[in-house]
Task: structure prediction
Amino acid sequence: MDLNAYLVVGGLLFSLGVLGTLLRRNIIVMLISIELMLNGANLTLAAFSTFLEDMAGNVMVIFSLTVAAAEVAVGLAILVALSRVFPVVNIDQLDDLRG
Amino acid sequence: MGEVNAADLTWILPEIIVAGSAMLLLLWTAILRNDDRWWSVSIALGANATAGIVMALRQPIDGGALEIFSGQLVIDGFSTFFRALFLVVGSLAVLTVAQRFERVPFTETAATLQFSLSGMLLMAGAVDWVTAFIALELMAVPVYVLTAMTRFRRDSVEAAMKYLVLGAFATAVLVYGIAWTYGLTGTTYFPELAERIMTVGASPWMLFAIGLILVGFGFKVAAVPFHAWTPDAYQGAPTPLAAFISVGPKVAAVALLARVVGLGFGFQGADTGADPAVVLNVALAIAIIASMTMIVGNLVAISQSNIKRMLGYSSIAHTGYMLVGLAAVTRVEADTGFASFDFVGLPSVLFYGFVYAFMNFGAFAVAHVVEYQTGSNEISAFRGLMQRSPLPAAAMAVFMLGLTGIPPLTGFFGKLYILQAAVESDLGWLAIVLVVTSVVSAFYYLRVIVQMFMSDPDAEAASDGEPSAEVADLHTAVITATAGATLALGIVGGGILAWAQSSVATGLF
Result:
């Protein structure tokens, strides 16, 4: 298999996720971008795991997917609570806390 | 690597008991539909006490390190030290929340605290990326929920949202770093990592992978420049939970980082060897981050008027002090032919984590009492606290002096041991930054004491109605316990340091 191709795609996904999280201000888009970063990392892990013929990386991917799902579930729950007290989705408009 | 067998489960009974109590609490509130605090407190504290007793009884017979689950976890002095500390911190958190926390379902809060605690307990023993990652997230995800517990308050959900976005970002960076480290070394197992890194050498890709891991941990321990979430999270979170959040997750992340650099990157281990380029570069990176963290944390804390925000920046500064200890590593001459290192700062980090936990927890507990009495989190709300309720005021003075590092309180010895380690490993400049920023920190800590002791409740405050002088029983207990620990550890601090040293010596490093 061509390891480099997988690593490039993984790196691109991760970089797009980083850019999306840092540049976009919509909370939902930021959560999506974080998922993109995690998927880039997972693809890299799975590619290395297959290349090395070692199961540890694939095991890590499964746990990482599960954890990401849990994290997003909590994130969306907080977003629902947020939308009840702040009618906005732009993170810059969350400015009660500063200093 | 060892065999996996069912007997391994008995070694993680403390974690099983704590996580089990969390599930029991959730079922309790779902099935019985009641929110009886005293039952919930009893279940949580009973589980923590049982876990502590089981842990004390179930120790490796030879007192050394025992690897379980094929080397996923280790039971050793290091993990015992931190598990004991976390069980105490978790119990204090349950007690602090149990009183005066209306409009929030208490049983669910206690369950979430117990879930987070079980993750912290696992972090203390994790020696493989897979376990370390799961434990880290098991600790972190409930903490986001705890921050948002008062979901009807704007600041609480805002803090939780910011905390979650940055925390998840850090997690993703960490996983990408783990992926690359794994790809380059072919192992997720920390004891093999240092050796494999030596074989691979300090290639640019290796340093890139290690850099990503350090950035991920930088967010988790709240080091500058990855600290932006900290003051918001502590200010927005309900005060009794901020006490837990400012202590538990931070010390647990420092403990895991110590294991990663000590075991995985080869900071410790006179006979295993490590790549000098990797060790020295990582130590330098940690030293630079530590200096920035101490400077920014202490300087920004001065201008804060909100006590929780001030304690947030102060806790960033304390992360910096602990990172100084993590940067303190010396090269030793080994007869094996390759470079070896001695992690001289590690015992001082354990000691500092231990004393910091009590001081900072107590400070937030007093802030909670004042918040209840006056309805305000401003530092000016401490005005006249000494006349109003002397015990919390006296305890707050102990915490503030302890956090400043005034002898003979424990904070002083904590900083002293870290300074010694820094000087020993030729980090004189970092020691100077530590001393200077500690002096600066006296400015904002002493301001709180001045407010409590020297100012009389002024006419303006009186016109708003006299603040209540009431202190809840459980808060008295928590404040007395943490203040007592802060005072007592100054006297018996040598014993704790000896414990920290033997924990490192018998630990898997």
Helices of chain A lie at 3-23, 27-52, 56-85. Chain A touches chain B through 46 residues (CB under 8 Å).
